[in-house]
Amino acid sequence: MATKFVVNVDLVDIWQEKDRKKLIRTLAWGDEISVVKQTRDYAEIEAVDFVEQDDGSILPEKTIAYIQPSKTSGLKLADVIIPRRQNKVLKVNFVDVQQGDGSVIESPQGKVMLVDGGDNQLFARYLASRFRGTSLSRPKEIECILVTHGDADHFLGLPEIFKSEENKTPRKRLFMQPKRVYHNGIVKRPEKKGSKNRPEAAMLGPTRKVGKDLFLTGLETNLLKVDDDEMNAPFKTWKNALATYNKRAKVEFRRLAIGDNDAFDFFNEEDIKVEVLGPLTTEVGGKPALKFLGKPPRGPRIGHESLDVDDLKTSGLSASHTINGHSIVFRMTYGRISYLFSGDLNDEAGRYLTREHNGGNINLKAEVFKVPHHGSADFSGAFIQAVAPVVSIISSGDENARKEYIHPRATLVGALGKWSRVPEPLVLVTELVAFFNVEGWSRVTDKTKDKKRGEFFGFSRTAFGMVKTRTDGDRLLVYTDSGNLKMKEAYAYKLDQAGLLQPDEVVRA
């Protein structure tokens, strides 16, 4: 019978044969393995090999593999793998979902939290591959699904997980059961009400004017209680999936705002602390409300005017900037390493949070920074300066001209480098760390799918642009995959006595 272990070094190669012959792939710190046999020199494990088929597809196949530290590494097998119960590694993966966001947080004890989910099937496919063997009677338990805000590119991929239950291919199915669903309380309305276009100020529900400002007062908590007529199509799709999950086992719905840290008490026993830093609510008529934000100045930005936290001239009302600016922002700290998740936070809201940071009310500083809004130019330089990230991750990807926003913007990437606390910061873009293989000239054979497309030059994506991070609270590993099995882009850091991250050697067995 196999015994559960975890990898205890940064990277470890697994081989088809003993004596380190025929590389299958590389595992990373904190990855779980099933050990069938163990000697002083090697471990025989259950593994999955990805084998190319005759039609060019790559399918997983179960196999037996071997972990055997190289003689030159100076490592013993006991250094490389440890029993699962001794695991202390927090795993955070930023998943390539093209134009959108989707992240997976897994605690050392195996508690899983999803943050957003893109707007296509990519997030669902990744999760089905990672959490294999689920069924209706044995679903994967998800502690929390956190949707930072109600734009489709952040949550419409989550109903794809529900749809995957009926996929004809078993390996593409994921049965999950979320315990909690958190969101910012803003529900988008349909663009039309009857035959008329809905006014911008009415796109996000009831409002109330206070002086010169307009506030959203109809913030929602339980999405299942919102009428379908008050939801746009993506929200209704998400609501239908949630209704089924809720029938199977009661789901806790909660609207989050600054200070709602107790929502993450389920992490307490693992020394994982989550601070909710946004959105910032205002009391209007005795109820929590969110200010309706305006349109920012047109870019591109020249100079550093965005460092002035008080001087931003917006105009009119913008539903899109309002829902983005009131994204859930949270800071997750494990030991002495912090992550900051920022949804699609924009310049106007970023300045509000920076004022709170400068006033000592919140702490924005973090080692790992999920960059807002896919690298948009609508950012606050002062906000980035407050975060002072060592590692910045931008989730973006080209799909088509309709979704082309020129992400990430050069000004944003430059600001991330300038305002980092280290001389050589990491700026990783999910799209740029993907690997595309040249396939050559192709032709659409099914004319019912595309009547116009003739011959075209094709590429396939053989390695998705996922950014993976691992930490035990004192040490940090950041790595990405490559089109070459033998290569990983990997960086390690270790905190010194002053609490500053210093580069460390990447250990590979």
From TrEMBL:
<dbReference type="InterPro" id="IPR036866">
    <property type="entry name" value="RibonucZ/Hydroxyglut_hydro"/>
</dbReference>
<protein>
    <submittedName>
        <fullName>MBL fold metallo-hydrolase</fullName>
    </submittedName>
</protein>
<dbReference type="Pfam" id="PF00753">
    <property type="entry name" value="Lactamase_B"/>
</dbReference>
<dbReference type="InterPro" id="IPR052159">
    <property type="entry name" value="Competence_DNA_uptake"/>
</dbReference>
<feature type="domain" description="Metallo-beta-lactamase">
    <location>
        <begin position="98"/>
        <end position="165"/>
    </location>
</feature>
<dbReference type="InterPro" id="IPR001279">
    <property type="entry name" value="Metallo-B-lactamas"/>
</dbReference>
